[in-house]
Amino acid sequence: MFLGRFLSIFSSKSSIFAIASPHYQSFLVPSFHFDNASCQMRHFSAYPRFDFGSIREPDDAVALFREMMRTRPLPYVTVFNKLLSVVVKMQQNTLALRLFDEMLQRDVPINHYTLSIAIDCYCRLKRPDFGYAILGSFFKRGYEPDVVTFTTLIKGLLLVGRVPEAAKVLWKLSVYQLCEHDEYTYSTMINGLCKAGGTLEAIDLLCLLEKEKGSCKPNVYAYNAVIDGLCKDGKVDEALQLFSTLGDKGISPNVVTYNSIIEGLCNRRRMDEAEDILKKMIADKVCPNVVTCNIFVTAWCKDGKVEEAEHMLVSMKEIDVQPDIVIYNALINGYCMQGKMDEAVRIFQLAVNSGIKPNIVSYNSLMNGYCKKGQVNEVSRLFNMNSSFKSLNSQLRILLVVDSSFKTQIHDYLNSQLAQLTLSAQS
DNA sequence: TTAGGGTTAG
């Protein structure tokens, strides 16, 4: 049985932890001994120390920002930049831009790091043109955009599929000697090309870099992007071929490399080969992570082997990998697809009891399952548990998959909910 | 305590 073999593969992983444990220990030991001097400096500093680690919600960041704005003299620009970075890492790009705007309006000192963060936010919001506009502020304030700034803009253009423009920026960097490109620049370009459907062009660029003399050789991120692109294009054998050459090139595959290959094989239902790659991964001392586990769980669920897939939760505990909502959702959906709603709800509860918050995907899977069984009352109950404008569009999408005999009933129900939500929003 | 990179679910 595949699951049995899978578990036995994982059980051999204890050796990995044995090897890795000294690193874990040194990582966990607090570094008081060499931080004493700086602690004392801070203790006597006139500036308060702002605790960015305590930021959990966007509101926390706003509260800290307000506190910083009230502090006199104002904190250094580095402190404001740090706060903006924390907000960006929370994927609150609009909020980061709002804070940035307030800094400009209230004449808080900024530097080229601040401007790069703002460009990054616009790019992440898929508005690279606004990012470009900020380049003007660089020159106005006497700063020069550097390789990070340009790489960020290239990434932004690629994110919205503007491949030729991104290539042009890359080309201009060299021709006009605006700055020296680095590994990030090329891996960003290669990844963007793959994500925009241009895996072949990405391979061409990769080959060009491999032949180029100099220090800017493609790294594991660039190879991962191409391997993943090939797998997603269904060209798993080509991905395997490239994967097999990595060792000779001095590139160590990491967990993402292995996950992409495993996913490519699983999607083609080449499960035995996926298992072989997992074995190789463990032999190479690369620890499987939650994504690795989820790839197998998803594949088993699609094959209708949901009970077996559920055993993965046990395996994960054994190897100290924490399940996340993605893996619970894969199982919930697996049971829903089989019409086993009691089992689906049990997994839902298991997630909640484990402290994992269900999300829109969890609710949609359950609603879809109940719709398929015609249990409209359960659908309404779930809808009321999770009704908001944000999720409404996703919930309406279930109409596409429910049996036609229930469509009218659910459609009327959702319309009445929509009307109520509209009214409450207006009031 | 200052900026840029990858993989997963309905």
Q: Main traits of this protein?
A:
PPR_P_subfamily, 25 helices, TPR-like_helical_dom_sf, 427 residues, DNA-binding, 73% helix, mainly alpha
Please explain how this structure is put together:
The chain has 427 residues and is mainly alpha-helical. Among the domains are: 1-181, Alpha Horseshoe (Serine Threonine Protein Phosphatase 5, Tetratricopeptide repeat); 195-270, Tetratricopeptide repeat domain (Serine Threonine Protein Phosphatase 5, Tetratricopeptide repeat), CATH 1.25.40.10. The chain is built from 25 helices and no strands. The chain has helices at residues 2-11, 14-28, 32-44, 58-70, 77-89, 93-105, 112-124, 128-140, 147-159, 163-175, 183-195, 199-211, 220-232, 236-245, 255-267, 271-283, 290-302, 306-310, 312-318, 325-337, 341-353, 360-373, 376-385, 389-396, 404-426. The longest helix has 23 residues, at 404-426. The N and C termini lie far apart (59 Å). Residues 1-45 and 399-403 have low confidence and may be disordered.
Number of helices: 25
* Spatial extent as radius of gyration: 25 Å
In the CATH hierarchy, the architecture of the domain at 1-181 is Alpha Horseshoe
Unreliable stretches, pLDDT < 50, 5 or more residues?
1-45, 399-403
Q: Given this structure, which CATH class of the domain at 1-181 is correct?
A: Mainly Alpha
Q: What sequence of helices (H) and strands (E) makes up the elements? A: HHHHHHHHHHHHHHHHHHHHHHHHH
How far the N terminus sits from the C terminus, by CA atoms, comes to 59 Å
Sheet/helix structural class:
mainly alpha
Largest beta-sheet details: none
Count of strand segments: 0
- The helicity comes to over 70%
Mean pLDDT: 83
CATH topology of the domain at 1-181: Serine Threonine Protein Phosphatase 5, Tetratricopeptide repeat
| Principal-axes shape call | globular
β-strand amount: under 5%
Protein name: Pentatricopeptide repeat protein
Pfam families: PPR_1 (PF12854), PPR_2 (PF13041)
Keywords: Repeat
Family: Belongs to the PPR family. P subfamily.
